[in-house]
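Our consortium's second objective concerns turning raw sequence data into structural hypotheses that experimental partners can test. To show how far this objective has progressed, the report includes one record in full. It was chosen at random from the queue rather than selected for favorable results. The single chain below, 348 residues long, was entered without modification.
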Amino acid sequence: MKSSDKIKVGISIGDLNGIGSEIVLKTFEDVRMMELCTPVVFASARTITFIKKKLNIDIAFQGVDDAAQAIDNKFNVVNVWKENVTVNFGEETEEAGRHAFLSLQAATNALKQGDVDILVTAPINKHNIQSEEFRFPGHTDYLAKELGGESLMFMITDTLKVGLLTDHVAVKDVAAAITPQLIEKKVRIIHKTLQQDFRISQPKIAVLGINPHSGDGGVIGNEDEEIMKPTLEKIRNSGKLIFGPYSADSFFGSGNYKNFDAIIAAYHDQGLIPFKTLSFGSGVNFTAGLSKVRTSPDHGTAYEIAGKNEADHHSFKEALFKGIDIFKSRQEYEELTQNVLKKQGKKI
């Protein structure tokens, strides 16, 4: 891709009975967005026509049969399916789950083929999307299989970035899942993504303890003493600026998170509750560690307001902006590292 080319943003439509289509259409109802990128939505012209009329959203679109046919300065809709689809806003249906997967599958294939540059995913329902072809707890694991790399859920804003040691893991299984190897892998992924995707040359990373008060010296569980602390010490000795484990209950309220470029939480709610409390509506879910860039808004299908034209599209818009920024940062990083290797090769 040349620097002068407009970035093609592939968009999977998510669960049609949720707010995904609404936030996508509202984002590009502002025609100025076409100056920033070329949107390529994976759904069908019939379905998008029905939804935009239902929600009274004024947007023109270009129907295409393949992402490679997408036209700049147009809102492109790839016809992934031809049949009429029943849209029942607010309802969990097998049909909506099946079409959410078809959209995601087509968007991911286009990303792998280079027909789109980045992927922004609208929310899915993790239950009704399950099938023989999709047996994953969410987007992250599916994309890790399809795109290659070591994926990590990374929740981001301009001022707060939270990664997880374990993401969609039951609370009862968290402690057993956290091993020295897992900690080292997750730190490695976050350290690299901060450098290549966020232009931070020497990242400072904080890690939260597994148990209350990081175990209180072994009084409340021994995982922090026996697993977390020695592993973090080993990582520090390798030269990375890694700190902790910190007691999670006071870490965010005290403002200590502001002293770090990223925070790694032990499990889902430990990291996402404070993240969403501090940034709900402006946060973005970025899948770090993949060979391609994927982002999504920080919320779900919101069935309770679907079809009512009440959905706030700002988190989706932020996901779009962040995806484009990360794509550009990664391009710059690759160019810089390639230039360094060329210079080293000449010296040799």
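The partners drew two points from this record. The mean pLDDT is 92. The first strand starts at residue 7 and ends at 12. Both points have been shared with the crystallography group to help prioritize constructs.
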